[in-house]
Amino acid sequence: MESSRSPSSWSVALITVIPVLLLLILSPWLFSFHHHHHHYPPPQPQPPPLTVGPFIKNTCTNTLYPSLCFHTLSSIPLHHVHDNVTRLHHVLRFAIQKTLIRATKCRSRIAALTLNLQLVTNCIDLLDQTIYELEESMKPPLTYAAIKNLLSAAMTNENTCIEGFSDSTHPQTRRLGRYFQKSLTPIMRMISNCLAIVNHLDTLLGPTATTRLLSHPDHVPSWMTAADRRLMQTPPPPTVVVALDGTGNFTTIGAAVAMAPNRSALRYVIQIKAGVYNENLVIPRQKINIMLVGDGMNSTIITGSRNFVDGYTTFTSATLCMYLFDQFIYLYKNYVCMYFKMFCDKCSCYWE
């Protein structure tokens, strides 16, 4: 029997069937897309526009790098603090902490380079010193002058690292120098902003006795006690003796320093007998309260032989290097030293 359906009936049937067929064909692909898309991490939300309160805005206006200052301090909670001086103290501590975090991360990245290059080693040492100085600047009680000294020293370290690459003519070393400059410049600028905040605090409170340089009219540091002053004139009996001929406890000064106790509360007196000591001596920061006593002018001599021609940088060519920030007496008694470098807060040199 011949079908009696009209053409319009076939059109309706096709319109109904085609979408169903398309859905059946595309459904595996749609399921696959949904399945994979489900495992993608959600897109990161756009950071909100940076907003800072009037107090932070006013504080950052006094810095050399206000935009960086705004970003550094944008997340600091100050709603519970109403006194302006207390607020500034909170701001200063927060800014130093942020700088410390950045310096620590930078140090880790540089150490991960695993480059056997003296300039890189120098920069790591300098960053270690910067981290130490930033930590010390947050330890109470400190005068504003002491905080300024620590922050200024920390900023100088980065400059020293960058300048170390300027003498090189090797293209790879020059590229490395640009990398270090890009990495360290933000840290220097953050420290600069911290210094500006300290200066602002100092200005608000006005000149006081606590912001004076730590010195007396007689040129003796105020941290040095009367007993310490007497030590500069008449040294106590030695704790150990260094002598080249083997008649002492050690034949090298470095060995004597290495045996000194760490963070000692007692004075560790090293008497160095007459002789020419061909050493590049480094006194690490944990060796405090050390006193070096020589035998006389042109008798006790420390002479290193490192120089730029032999491949040493100026930073590493020092005959004597001291990394110290606690009380330390260094006695030059008729004592000759070609070139020495000090990273210390309480050091004293004396010679006759």
From TrEMBL:
Listed Pfam families: Pectinesterase, PMEI
InterPro entries: Invertase/methylesterase_inhib (IPR035513), Pectin_lyas_fold (IPR012334), Pectin_lyase_fold/virulence (IPR011050), Pectinesterase_cat (IPR000070), Pectinesterase_inhib_dom (IPR006501)
Highest taxon listed in the record's lineage: Eukaryota
Transmembrane parts of this sequence: 12-31
GO molecular function: enzyme inhibitor activity; pectinesterase activity
Entry keyword annotation includes Magnesium: no
Catalytic reaction(s) noted: [(1->4)-alpha-D-galacturonosyl methyl ester](n) + n H2O = [(1->4)-alpha-D-galacturonosyl](n) + n methanol + n H(+)
UniProt entry keywords in alphabetical sequence: Aspartyl esterase, Cell wall biogenesis/degradation, Hydrolase, Membrane, Transmembrane, Transmembrane helix
Domain Pectinesterase inhibitor, residue spans: 51-197
GO BP of this protein: cell wall modification; pectin catabolic process
Pathway: Glycan metabolism; pectin degradation; 2-dehydro-3-deoxy-D-gluconate from pectin: step 1/5
Family the UniProt entry places it in: In the C-terminal section; belongs to the pectinesterase family. In the N-terminal section; belongs to the PMEI family.
Protein name listed in UniProt: Putative pectinesterase, catalytic
